[in-house]
Design a protein that fits this description.
mainly alpha, 2 domains, two-stranded antiparallel ribbon
Length: about 180
């Protein structure tokens, strides 16, 4: 008899290293199993170049990620009043369900670290100029409306991670 599949429980509240599970082994589907829903693109010499996954699989991967790292529902709902209203009116179950099923694909941000205002302006002189011209109220507004989508780091502590992702997304993924 088949048992009903369970959606991973996602920890909510403030996310951080202390919230990460200490369990040594958790289930994650193998690559070959994921391939049953995916399409590979390989180079002439057989190297994997790209992998196309259906949106429900990407949503499930996001759900697993946040089940392991946590999700700050209060922060997400404070940043997105329209989502807060959807959750309040029960059109979406929870903030995290909104994020993994649609918010991520709409370009919404989750678990955002605070923006280090002075550092961000110094690190991004174009942002400082835009603020002086009145195009943005402050560095935080720039980060949430543009900077995150451009791969900019919100603080010096997160700059190495932002640089890593910029490398992965912008340099390593050029398809040719």
């Amino acid at each position: 008899m088949a048992t009903k599949r369970q959606t991973p429980k996602i920890k909510t509240g403030k996310a951080g290293p202390a919230d990460r599970p200490t369990q040594a082994c958790q289930y994650f589907p193998s690559y070959k199993f994921l391939l049953s829903a995916a399409k590979e693109q390989r180079t002439a010499d057989g190297k994997l170049q790209a992998l196309t996954l259906p949106l429900p699989v990407v949503s499930a991967l996001l759900r697993e990620l946040f089940a392991a790292t946590g999700f700050d529902e209060q922060d997400y709902l404070a940043r997105y009043p329209d989502v807060r209203e959807l959750v309040r009116s029960k059109q979406d179950q929870t903030a995290v369900e909104h994020f993994v099923n649609s918010g991520f694909f709409e370009g919404r941000l989750a678990n955002c670290a605070p923006v280090a205002e002075e550092w961000y302006r110094k690190r991004n002189p174009d942002v400082w100029q835009a603020i002086k011209k009145g195009q943005f109220k402050d560095a935080k507004e720039h980060y949430f409306t543009s900077g995150a989508n451009e791969g900019r780091a919100p603080s010096p502590e997160l700059e190495p991670i932002a640089e890593y992702w910029s490398d992965v997304i912008l340099r390593r993924t050029k398809l040719g």
